[in-house]
Amino acid sequence: NGTIVDLFNLGNRLLSAILGGICSGIGVALCFQQGGSTGGSDIVVMIVNKFYSISYGKFIRYTDSLIISAALFIPDVGIDGVIYGFVMTVVFSYVVDMLMTGNQQSNQIMIVCQDYKAMADAMNNTAQRGATVLDAKGWYTKNQHNIVMVVCRKRDTPTILKIAKAVDPNAFITVGSVMGVYGKGFEALNKI
User: Fold this and answer.
1) Which residues touch 161 (CB under 8 Å, ≥6 apart)?
2) pTM listed for this prediction
3) In the beta sheet, which residues pair with residue 107?
4) Which residues is 147 bridged to in the sheet?
């Protein structure tokens, strides 16, 4: 009977560590997405991230693991408290990385329209995004076209699509996810 109660308590503590990691990871990721800081070890992470290509979650896993390991020397914590601390840190770091990476993902938008100059100007001036004009030939119609290509963050895609629709409601548009974008306005080339 005592074993069942111990297992039930173990499950509650494990579930609490996992849910605590998920909830705190979501909260910290939202804070970072708005340019904020929690005032803890994440300040060091932000400084290191400016110079090295290391994710917030990975760095926090290392630093918090050292801090949690130090808790082994505190008599009241015990080994089980340290293990739950590690579980929460791992869950927390993966949630933060997942949400932060999702925020940084980019799209490549290809716009085929009649007035490519007006479209490219609208992307540069209204959307404040760079645009590239590509020469193309539609194989179905055998007509020459120009394609306006825009690369933007996923969160900016709806704005780009609204501007494109305002310029040419009959435009043919494709949106594709890209794995990495490097250069001005995106990730620095030295982070490759």
Assistant:
1) 109, 173, 175
2) 0.52
3) 152, 177
4) 112, 134
CA proximity to 64, closest of 12, 28, 102, 101: 28
Token digits for 115? Answer: 């007035």
Pick from 13, 181, 191: nearest CA to 86: 13
Q: Is residue 56 a contact partner of residue 49, using CB atoms and an 8 Å limit?
A: yes
Q: In this predicted model, which residue has the larger pLDDT, 101 or 129? A: 129
CA 41, 44, 46, 48 dihedral sign is negative
Q: What is the pLDDT of residues 10-24, one digit of tens each?
A: 568 888 888 889 998
User: DSSP 3-state helix, strand, coil percentages of the chain (rounded to 5)?
Assistant: 60, 15, 25
Taking only the tens place, the pLDDT of each residue in 39-81 is 777 777 777 766 766 777 888 888 888 888 888 888 777 788 8
In the structure encoding, which two tokens stand for residue 95, read together?
């949630």
Report residue 51 as tokens. Answer: 């110079």
Identify the DSSP state of 186.
S
Residue with tokens 């840190």: 89
